[in-house]
Amino acid sequence: MPCFFSTAAIHLLKDIKVQAIIGPETSTQARFIIDLGNRTNVPILSYSATSPYLSAKQYFVRTALNDVSQVPAIASLIQYFSWRQVVPIHEDSDFGRGIIPYLEDALLNVEAHIPYQSIIPSVPTDDQIEAELNKLMTMQTRVFVVHMSPKIAARLFMLAHDAGMLAEGYAWIVTDSVGNVFSTLDQNTISSMQGVLGVRPYVVQSDKLLNFDARFHSRYRQQNPGAPDPAKPIIFQYWAYDTAWAIAMALKKAGPLTLGFQIPSLKNSNSSNDLSMLGVSLDGARLIDAIRGTKFQGISGEFVLVDGQRQASVFEIFNVIGNSYQSAGFWTPKFGLRKNPIISSGPHAKVGLNTVIWPGGSGQPRGWEWPVAGKKLKIAVPVKPYNRFVNAGKNTATGNFDVTGYCIDIFDAVMQEMPYAVPYDYVPVTDPNMVTSMTMSYSEMCRQVSLKKYDAMVGDTTIIINRSLYVDFTLPYTESGVQMVVPMKENWSKNLWVFLKPIDPNLWVAILAVFLFTGFVIWLVERKDSRYFGGSTGKQLVNTAYFNFQALISVPKDPKVKKWLSKFALINWILLAWLLEKLYSASLTSMMTVRQLQPTVADLNQLINNGDYIGYQSGSFVRDLLKSLKVDEHKMRDYSPDQYADALKKGSWNGGVAAMFDEIPYLKVFMSTYCRNHTVVGRVYKTGGFGFVFPKGSPLVADVSRAILKVTEGDRIVSIERKWFGDEVACNSQANIIEPGSVITWSSLRGVFFITIGLWIAAGFVYATIWFFQRGQQGEQIQQAVAELAIERVHGDGDQNVIWRIGGDSHLLIRLHSHLPPLPLPPSAQEARSGSEAESAIISGDSALEEGRARTSGDSSLEERRDGGEPMTPPAGEPNGALSLLHVDSQNQEIGGLRER
């Protein structure tokens, strides 16, 4: 057939010298004809050659749609139904292969991929088609996109129907190569395609189109009387009609073509059929430009060429039902899938598709199923020394491996939560190069899964970025992260300075500051009125400090402070000291009576700086993690989990390690046994946690991940954890460590200090106000306070100070009854009295009694009076040798007194 069209095209160009050619019908035929058009400058217009391999350049014009234009519509269908794998079935030709690269790219954009391409020979036998269908039945994918010529597609669907592949669980999509000619298929083919979805260009039912259909049928009946009515024209026929109109309009636009052909010389050819004898159209350039620029409203829609080919507008999604089809929806480049062809982006737009009838009349296929051959999944399981996560121990009786462990139970529970039955077998994997039958590295096992040697891998496999490059992981089912466990050492309760530990150093500084400030305030206020806070500088400091310390223990019964401001400062200090004493006692008691432990190491940087050895689990990725954290490779040692405790006990410099790095699930198992003397400290280095491994693109990943959520969010996970790890750990190593919150800190008491400081400020403000007020009345105060006498009484075990202020309206009477030898009187006293015995001495309130002393004999007395008042007689029964001091007012009424034997 291609040879016939080639000969016919050469004949038209060489003998008839046509100015344009409409055709050919197929993409295979078009390639040679396009070359002839480019050689002769004759426009070639094809209304049915849709292969993207045909370049619409130079003198070739595609008045049909490129096959690539429907690819986004197909990808939208795949995305709409959430399918992740699609198998294209195409014929082995340029037409069949041309769409595949574009389909792959479009599917990647909607997170789907092509695991396999089913290629049917361009001239197939039934056996070849059946062999390919049998291969597809053994695969998991159940979504197929068919792109081939209508004749091959009809045979394919007939055989697929007979093989049971047009049944429940399957999804079939045909491209416009079948959709455009669907009305021409026989009823047997249509019956075998029940539930198939198709994509084809949508032609609006305009008045021009309806008029064309009526005229076409009328003319056909006139030319073929008695013949049955023809089938309704298909879109290729509409495009052919519009193509003819496009050439006619282009000729009218370009004007008469009068230049003709330039014929080559006969000397250049040895045969009349040689292609070198073809002439070159001198009007071709003008005509092709006119064709490319032609625009009009044809019966198939608007005729517009962009880059020499027709542009897509709307595609119809149809669903084969019964003897025909029904429209399931429409697709446009701008709005995507819609239920009706009237595209609207407003609130009334009907997004999505209408109800679809699938093969077998079932609900929407999930896109994949288990192979009909009943193949079980081969689940790789690592073989390693016994641990609670995965244990593939060899049964000596049977010689087989018994697979148990936490990860195994989780996987079994997940498979029970799957919405369908999943048959699988565990396959223990050992390293053939190891005599001890230990497993190969986990990364290598992941590679085996990526190569499809195993269908999945179950075990304590951590999700890390390097492995995710070639396998797919499910959601994690354990806590993620890597930390370090270190031994703990006795602390504080055996420390020399343990009594300082209950209070934070910053708080000690604050207490000292309050102590000094309180002493300063008391000294400043009381130093002028109290000899206790007077004297030399050293005496003042000692007395002030002693007084403050005395206030710490108890409130003084005989306080030496008289001023209200010093009393106020003392009260603040006593209240603060009382609160600190209670807190200090409680914290110190806790430290001395509870076993106090602290980690030997705080973080990884300390380990590196100390040059300590660091441990990790054999075969774990943690080794690479430590190397990336700048840990010297020579400072790393590998152990199995049951060796952790012994290695930590030995220590870094006795053949062991200072810290052990591992994943959090392993550390939890370790701490469940060794938590009393070990603790988990340091930063958590995030990882993905444990996950199940599947090959890239496996359809199981999404369903297994959802099942993991059901297990981990339910009660099943609790029973599995209790089975392998027991109940919650009884001892908690963190409880043995004094947390910063158990020490009294500045931040915990800053409110008390702020209140104290605030009260001091308020008191200081009041005191300053009073001081300034008194300073303004200083003269009056001096007149009122004439003299002041301080008398110190010393008796037995105590001391007592009496301070009297002698005002202008009072006087002090001193009586001395003694048999002591008389002492010489001061000159003023001698003038005041005569005789050998002084009866009395009168010192007015205005006189100064500084160093005067009175010496009398017998019961002589010394009096201080005002206005010549009579001396007061000693009280009855007063013995000789007694000193009486009476402070009396102007009416001789006793204000205060002191008598000393």
Concise summary:
Helices cover 36% and strands 19% of the residues. The protein has 901 residues and is of the alpha/beta class. Helix 6 crosses helix 7.
Spatial strand sequence of the major β-sheet = 5-4-6-7-8-15-16-17
Poorly predicted runs are: 732-741, 781-785, 794-799, 828-881
Structural class: alpha/beta
Query: Number of DSSP strands?
Result: 35
Q: Would you tell me the overall average pLDDT?
A: 78
Q: End-to-end distance, in Å? A: 154 Å
- What is the rounded Rg? 55 Å
Number of helices: 27
Largest sheet: 8 strands, mixed
- Rough outline: elongated
**Amount of helix:** 25-40%
Proportion of β residues? 15-25%
Question: In words, what does this structure look like?
Answer:
With 901 residues, the protein is of the alpha/beta class. The chain is 36% helix and 19% strand. Helix 13 (406-416) crosses helix 23 (700-712) and helix 13 (406-416) runs antiparallel to helix 24. It is elongated. InterPro entries: ANF_lig-bd_rcpt, GABAb_receptor_plant_PBP1, Glu/Gly-bd, Ionotropic_Glu_rcpt, Iontro_rcpt_C, Iontropic_Glu_rcpt_pln, Peripla_BP_I. Pfam families: ANF_receptor (PF01094), Lig_chan (PF00060), Lig_chan-Glu_bd (PF10613).
